Amino acid sequence: MIFGQNRLLRFAAVVLAALIAVPTWAAERGPVTNLPMPRFVSLKAEEGNVRRGPSLSHRIDWVFTRRNMPLEITAEYGHWRRVRDRDGQGGWIHYSLLSGVRHVIIEQNATPLLIKPDPESPVNAMAEQGVIARLDSCGLDWCRIVADGNKGWVEKRRLWGIQPDEIRE
Predict the structure, then answer these.
(1) Nearest C-alpha neighbor of 32 from the set 91, 85, 86, 73
(2) 50: β partners
(3) Which contiguous run of DSSP H or E holds residue 74?
(4) 133 vs 103: CA distance, rounded Å
(5) How does pLDDT run across 44-55, given as a tens digit for each residue?
(6) Closest CA relative to residue 93, chosen from 124, 114, 121, 72
(7) Residue 142: half-sphere exposure toward Cβ, Cα within 13 Å
(8) Within 13 Å, how many C-alpha atoms sit on residue 53's CB side?
(9) 89 Cβ contact list (under 8 Å, min separation 6)
(10) Which residues pair with residue 142 across a beta bridge?
(11) C-alpha separations of 134 from 32, 41, 55, 138, 160 in Å
(12) pLDDT of 133-156, one tens digit each?
């Protein structure tokens, strides 16, 4: 009996460790791609028709017109992905219009791009609200981005397009 209890405790410890290691944003997987859901991608095209449903026969409700705009995928169906932008607008878009190259949107005016991920670090550049930047790496609280050729570290809370607990190397 003791052997069985020890084995059960070891199993429970392994399961608990696995649950702790999986970030909350990766807890669910897409039925088509088996990738984390929800997840962020970027608009690859200059324009992307967003439809009411997952096929060409569905009405176009919205047209995204900002290349590299980050979008959050919330569902998958065949070659279609249900997406939303930072304002909550969205619908279904064909996967060929999306890219895995990650971008973010600056959420606050006069956001400093710092040389190091430290609030006391010198400022390399300033970014305005709404600027789209390429996402490089992210720690717990800071992300390294590239915006209009300027590189720097920004507090993650000032960005849209990255999960709060997401880490990128």
Answers:
(1) 73
(2) 62
(3) strand 70-77
(4) 5
(5) 999 999 999 999
(6) 72
(7) 13
(8) 5
(9) 50, 62
(10) 155
(11) 26, 11, 30, 12, 12
(12) 999 999 999 999 999 999 999 999
- Catalogue the long-range contacts made by 124-127 (C-beta closer than 8 Å, 24 or more residues apart): 124/150, 124/151, 124/152, 125/150, 125/152, 127/154
Is the pTM higher than 0.85? The answer reads no
| Residue-level pLDDT at 15 | 39
pLDDT < 50 stretches in the chain? 1-4, 8-9, 11-22, 25
CB atoms near residue 67 (< 10 Å): 15
SS3 of 6-61? HHHHHHHHHHHHHHHHCCHHHCEECCCCCCEECEEEEECCCCEEEECCCCCCCCEE
β-pair partners for 114: 123, 153
Please check whether residue 70 is in contact with residue 160, taking contact to mean a CB–CB distance below 8 angstroms.
yes
Q: Which domains does the chain have, with CATH numbers?
A: 27-101 (2.30.30.40), 104-160 (2.30.30.40)
pLDDT value, residue 5: 52
Task: Look at residues 14, 19, 64 and name the one whose alpha carbon lies nearest to residue 43.
Answer: 64
